[in-house]
Sequence to fold (182 residues):
Amino acid sequence: MSISENTLEQAIITELRDKGYEYIYGPQIERDYQEVILKDCFETSMYNVNPDITQPIIGEAFKAIHNLGLLKLEDLNAAFHKYLIEGVPVPYKKNGEDRTYTVKLINYDQPEENDFKVINQYTIIEYKTKRPDVLVFVNGIPMVIFELKNTAKDYTTIEQAYNQIKNYQLDIPTLFHYNAFN
Fold:
């Protein structure tokens, strides 16, 4: 029995929905296609993960992960990973005193407090327009990319999926700033 790319896509979506992930069909999301983070979801999630956070601190944390300030993809991803594990330090003033709020991007102690989404056919426009098959978002941040291939075709190889991911890294590199798993 051959398995088409769409069959694989639907199976992944079903499996993740069964685990409690919210499913969204990418083309139905009204957004800026040059932005890979789901900003509204990110902001809402930060209130859930950091109950005493303020909007200005959320804004600064978003700026910090959005503008990592490095050039090499590997360094950008490593910088984001550090934020993911340690939190994003955001300086602020309280009663004239300098303080630092560490924004947790993920609630590791209570995973149910995080927002998990599976989105297919999510268009991203950067150097080229691309539409990865399936993305997993945690708290509005794209963390996992699935690139699927049609196994019904005799010439389909895992190398083709790997090469597609490498092409995405060149064409839509911002997606890979946050990517934890392909």
